[in-house]
Prior knowledge:
about 120 residues, 5 helices, 9 strands
Amino acid sequence: MNIPENLKYTKDHEWLRVEGDHAVVGITDFAQGELGDVVFVEIETEGEALDKEEVFGTIEAVKTVSDLFMPVGGEVLEINPDLEDSPEVVNKDPYGKGWMVKVKVTDPAEIEELLSPEEYKELIG
């Protein structure tokens, strides 16, 4: 299981990577594995300010549809343009090309409330 050390994680299997004054959000390797083949990602929240744990989109796999939750509160600055034509990139590269959104974080203290890589490893067993 790939759990990069430079990321923070949520109990809902999203990851967050801080990049200067914004953060990048995606789903974990564990999440994409549980979902199976991703066939569609719908995110229509660009430009919206959302609270921590609010739904920012949905991800559809062959077996199921799941909500995507904000790891921290903030404004959705950008949606990964590659997801529309190539949603399978989430399966192939969940921590790289399969990122979901870039967010301007409202309260940086919320980042510290997220799970460390070690805590996330314990969560998924």
